[in-house]
Amino acid sequence: MIEKAQVAVVGAGAAGYFAAIRAAERGRQVVLLEKNRKPAVKILMSGGTRCNLTQATDRRGIVDAFGKQGRFLHSALAALGPEELVDWFEGAGVPTKVEPTGKIFPVSDRAVDVAEALRRKFDRSGATLLLDRSMQHVERTDAGFVLRTVGGNLAAEKLVLTTGGQSYPGCGTTGDGYEWAKQLGHRIVPPRPALVPLLSDLAWVHALSGVTVSDVGVKIVEGENPQTKAQASGRGSLLFTHFGLSGPVVMDLSRAVTARPDASVWQAVCDFVPSLAEEDLTDALARRNQTVMAVVSEWLPRRLAETLLAQASIPHDQRTAELSKKHRNRLVQVVKRMPIPIHGSQGFKKAEVTAGGVDLRDVDSRTMQSKRCPNLYLAGEILDLDGPIGGYNFQAAFSTGWLAGESV
Asked: pTM here?
């Protein structure tokens, strides 16, 4: 016997939950399939188990954050913008707060509260959730689609693919949806990790593991010359790790590295005091008569200050007024233009999102319906959409899922 539904949604994450809830609220008979034994696994582990829901900005701010891809989100954000998303969760019993970075979290700092709110809204919508139901194959028919799953077949008039990308494969996001979308006629932009920590072999970088610098300017350059034109640049918090570099600014720039797996040499050129121009730093060193450690540690964590002085071959107790021009220039260089060789990323296993996916040209942004396969809708991370760290990617998933649910 084949189960039947008007709408089948595959993948119970942010996009899938919102697509299913909205479609069911509109009176559609909806079945939501999830391969895991519990839904919303990635939501539960996101944001350090706190779940960064969105960013404190308007629709334009979300669009701009996605760059060229952002234009695709106009209709989805018109249907559900960041303010509406916050109102939705507040109404579902999840009070929110805005942190200084603009990130919006539950007041409780508990991702489980977000997952439970989604489940409550889902249960009230009248949709059906089938857990531990991995889809094996999808077939188009005259009446819609037949989904072959581990628990039996399901026939649906309309299908919404919200299977996610390939980041955090332990959550079940193993890229299955790309193959199904490809079989149904879609072009796939090769997936790659994004928002992922970067690897470096430098021993002094590893020795600084755990040190955070709250404001660092970073340029990603290809090749051994740090003066080469930057492939990407940004500014924000940086974290040294036992394997290399992490933190928001590094993760935001990581897509430049993962986009070029053929490139053998990368460098992250770090400005550890971006609020101070090189000339002002040089003047400050020339004017003051303190030890270089006393001066540099005013700007930077002491462990980093010690390391940079060692890299510049300057004794900690050397007084700034006694620095030779050569050593003063060298100190300015390691503080303002320190190159750190990069040899790749931690890959999908540690990537927060996936870049690449279903080509946006194959999807009608006004409805999330496929242009190549009628009655098929796609939403969330399966699409070639990836934004910066800070809740932007969840907002895109919730909004595109909502619009798909409005459209089926």
From this structure: 0.95
**What DSSP element (H or E) covers 400?**
helix 392-407
Q: Calculate the CA 198 to chain-centre distance.
A: 14
For the sheet containing 103-106, what is the strand order?
54-55, 103-106, 96-98
The tens digit of pLDDT for each residue in 107-130 reads 999 999 999 999 999 999 999 999
**Statement: residue 253 has pLDDT above 70:** yes
What's the token pair of residue 172? 């079940």
CA distance 258 to 252: 11
Each residue's pLDDT tens digit, 288-344: 889 999 999 999 999 999 999 999 999 999 999 899 999 999 999 999 999 999 999
CA angle 206-210-213, nearest 5°? Answer: 100
Q: How many CB atoms lie within 10 A of CB 216?
A: 25
The CB-based long-range contact list for 232-239 (8 Å cut-off, 24+ gap) reads 232/256, 235/274, 237/212, 237/213, 238/212, 238/213, 238/270, 239/210, 239/211, 239/212
- What are 3's two structure tokens? 């189960």
Q: How many CB atoms neighbour CB 361 within 10 A?
A: 12
> In this structure, what token pair is assigned to residue 365?
């942004």
Tabulate helix, strand, coil % of the chain (nearest 5). 40, 25, 35
Task: Kindly tell me the burial class for residue 224, based on how many C-beta atoms sit within 10 Å of its own C-beta (0-12, 13-18, 19 or more).
Answer: exposed
Domains, in order of start, for the chain: 3-193+348-407 (3.50.50.60), 198-342 (1.10.8.50)
What are the pLDDT digits (tens) for 205-244? 999 999 999 999 999 999 988 889 999 999 999 999 999 9
For residue 339, what are the CA distances in angstroms to 177, 227, 308, 333? 39, 10, 12, 9
Give the separation between CA 44 and CA 114, rounded to whole angstroms. Answer: 8
Euclidean distance between CA atoms 34 and 173, whole angstroms:
11
